[in-house]
Design brief:
- The chain is built from four helices and 30 strands.
- By secondary structure, the chain is mainly beta.
Length: 426
């Protein structure tokens, strides 16, 4: 009887959190929470994806500023390929308990800014996931249904093979430097697909980004045991240019992109070198410094980057002749999930004739870009002026294949592939 009551309460808790959002985005919902990451253990740059029936484990990490410990809980939510919660019972996809407390935490030390660092693994001793597809881990404060943060991850059960994935020059000569086109086919021998146009959906991502992912991709041609996705211009991404970068692993000396360091008692301040508009700049390959938008937490004057890396106010500067009235510039990267918000909006400084932003970041190595968002269409992110495009730009791409048979209530992830625009050219 006690077990049944516990399971019922668990299900009610899950339903409450699952209904909190219609679409789950990678997002931090509280200003006091920073540096939320989810990745395979030991691989901080890798995509948060695990294979069914393996020992794969993901690590969730985040910091809460201050000295006090909070009672954080988590819940695992199953989503469809659009990241909408499914109608499945939690018992359909979880063996164990779908929610619990995050009990693994520790306090920062030798830092100017105090914080508590939290960790949890997916899966862990309390649960395992029994169905492939899309999932989110929702972190919330005990007794509250509003999420504190949400991180997406995927569980794959590989049943099909992605054949000959490649990055190609578009067949439209006028767009040669404006787009990188993704081509591939799908071999499903041994896996029966009755109606490919209804049962198969493909999603393609650039540099692990969700904000510009191309979804709802259906096969172009159907052959025996093979599906072709060699479209013209349908699966194509602006390549931009190599990411900008800065290194704040040490606050004792200035690195190449750091103009000045102001060490204070309350918070340390880093001033980056002024950036320029790159639309007309000649393309150059950045090599090891280009992490395709990612970041790495690290500190040189310490042994434990999780707890000894300090939080720093980083000042960005983008010189511009005059203030413009039809939109705003933002600084984006994986560190803020390419989010457009007041936190990363640049404001015009009349004295410096530059757009400027101040962002609190943990010590490490960062990639970033600037983007323009017009007032009349806030959903548009325009990199043309700030970054420009060049076909030879090195980018990573991921292809995900989802399958839903007739009457099924969730999308299986039955195949995926990672390719690089330099290593996998057509």
């Amino acid at each position: 009887m006690k077990l049944n009551i516990t399971l019922a309460l668990l299900f009610l808790c899950f339903s409450s959190i699952a209904n909190a959002l219609d679409i789950y985005e990678d997002k931090v919902h509280e200003d006091n929470i920073h540096t939320a990451t989810l990745h395979p253990i030991g691989y901080p740059f890798a995509t948060p994806i695990i294979q069914m029936n393996t020992q794969d484990v993901l690590l969730l990490e985040f910091d809460e500023l201050g000295e006090d410990v909070s009672d954080f809980r988590y819940v695992i939510v199953q989503c469809n390929y659009k990241w909408e919660p499914t109608n499945n019972s939690v018992f359909d996809f979880i063996d164990g308990f779908s929610d619990g407390y995050i009990n693994n935490y520790d306090f920062s030390f030798n830092t100017t800014v105090d914080y508590v660092h939290y960790q949890m693994t997916i899966p862990n001793e309390d649960f395992r996931i029994t169905q492939s597809g899309n999932y989110v881990v929702v972190v919330f404060r005990d007794s509250e249904s509003e999420p504190s943060l949400v991180k997406r991850f995927m569980v794959a059960d590989s049943k099909v093979q992605i054949q000959n994935p490649a990055v190609a020059i578009t067949r439209n000569p006028s767009l040669r430097d404006q787009l990188q086109e993704i081509l591939f086919s799908l071999d499903h021998e041994g896996f029966n697909i009755v109606n490919p146009f209804q049962e198969i959906t493909v999603v393609v991502r650039q540099n692990d980004r969700w904000d510009n992912a191309i979804s709802d991709i259906k096969p172009l041609h159907i052959r025996e045991n093979s599906l072709s996705f060699n479209y013209n211009l349908k699966i194509a991404f602006p390549p931009a240019k190599e990411y900008r970068e800065f290194d704040i692993r040490s606050l004792r000396y200035r690195t190449e992109r750091v103009r000045a360091i102001d060490v204070r008692d309350s918070i340390n301040i880093v001033y980056l070198m002024p950036d320029g508009m790159r639309q007309l700049e000649e393309y150059r390959y950045e090599g090891d410094g280009d992490l395709n938008g990612k970041f790495l937490i690290d500190v040189q004057e310490g042994r434990n980057e999780d707890l000894e890396a300090d939080y720093v106010q980083v000042n960005f500067s983008l010189p511009f002749d005059n203030k413009i009235s039809n939109g705003y510039f933002y600084v984006v990267g994986e560190f803020n999930n390419y989010e457009i918000s007041d936190k990363n909006k640049l404001k015009f400084n009349d004295f410096h004739n530059a757009y400027e932003a101040k962002i609190l970041l943990k010590q490490g190595f960062y990639n970033y870009q600037y983007v323009f968002v017009p007032n009349d269409n806030p959903k548009v992110k325009d990199y043309t002026l700030t970054e420009g495009n060049y076909y030879d730009t090195e980018n990573d791409y991921a292809i995900y294949v989802y399958y839903r048979s007739f009457g099924q209530r969730y999308d299986e992830l039955i195949g995926f592939s990672f390719i690089n625009s330099r290593l996998n050219r057509y």
